[in-house]
Design a protein that fits this description.
By secondary structure, the chain is α+β, with helices and mostly antiparallel strands. Helix content is about 30%, strand content about 35%. The chain is globular and about 45 Å long. It starts with 8 loop residues before the first strand and ends in a 7-residue tail after the last helix.
Length: about 150
């Protein structure tokens, strides 16, 4: 497959909570573990690598934050081989936040890059839906853990 443009995973969600609270939910693992990964070695901070774990799958990844603009943007690299993830937080009227996620820099043959982008779009869509449920309703839906249940081939 020949690509004319490198694929980018993109998804977004309106979350009915103030931008400061939504931003904190992404940088503070005490909150993020309610809807995404199970464990973290620390809070997201510019220039300080952290390790995120999904113990239900027995996997982890190193996360390196290159930029944080509080309540506006987070730029990080993760995975192996590394890709870039950009989180954009837009303060909306009525104390709501529009949260956008872009993941790019996939490598390999064209069809593999497209597969990675599609998988990433689906994964980040679940993360944003889980964040919305937790932040708006206090519900832990288990979306990420239920995406690949044990016993399913």
């Amino acid at each position: 497959m020949e690509l004319k443009q490198a694929p980018t995973a993109e998804t977004a969600m309106l979350i009915r909570r103030p931008v400061a609270e939504v931003f904190e939910a992404i940088v503070d693992p005490a909150v993020t573990t309610k809807f995404w990964f199970t464990h973290s070695s620390g809070r997201l901070d510019e220039g300080k690598p952290v390790e995120w774990e999904w113990r239900m799958y027995g996997v982890s990844t190193r996360v390196e934050v290159s930029e944080i603009v509080p309540r506006e943007r987070i730029v990080m690299r993760w995975n192996d081989p590394p890709t870039t993830v950009v989180w954009t937080f837009t303060d909306m009227s009525g104390g709501t936040t529009f949260l956008e996620v872009r993941n790019f820099g996939f490598v390999g043959p064209g069809d593999e890059q497209v597969k990675q982008a599609v998988d990433s779009t689906g994964g980040f869509s679940l993360v944003l839906a889980g964040a919305k449920a937790w932040l708006e309703q206090g519900l832990t839906l288990g979306l990420v853990g239920d995406r690949h249940p044990k016993g399913l081939k």
